[in-house]
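Researcher: Please translate sequence to structure tokens.
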Amino acid sequence: MTQRREPIRSREYLDGSRGQPCVFRIPGICIGGTETTVACHLHDETFGMAEKADDTSTGDGCHACHDAMDGRSIVLSREDWLFYAFRAIQRTIRNRVLRKIVQIKLDVPKPASARPVKPRKPKDERVKIVGRNDAWAQGRKLPSRPMRIKP
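Model: Translation complete:
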């Protein structure tokens, strides 16, 4: 039996939904825009009788997607519900981090390569590689597996 935990509550986190686009974007349901966007609570382990989920388990959603995720307008399959919920939470957290509502110490981006890239010589200054046969020999077949017919 798991011990009951108090849900995480943050007015600032919930207010971060105001004016944001819908992150659920359920095809055929989403109305888009930013006028009706609210923080849509999604079920998590703190969810229960008369208790909303953590505020961190929310996605910025238009009222139509919110109704769909709560099962008020349509019933999504379990797989679809999980897909849209997971994607919405990811997009919402990323949005909050980029807007500095949620503070995470970000790593300094590393260069693509540790060693400096040398610029190439112009074509006329390049030395031709000796012993390299660029042309495919005439009449030579491509190696392949022998085709065997099973009896």
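Researcher: Any highlights?
Model: The mean pLDDT is 83.
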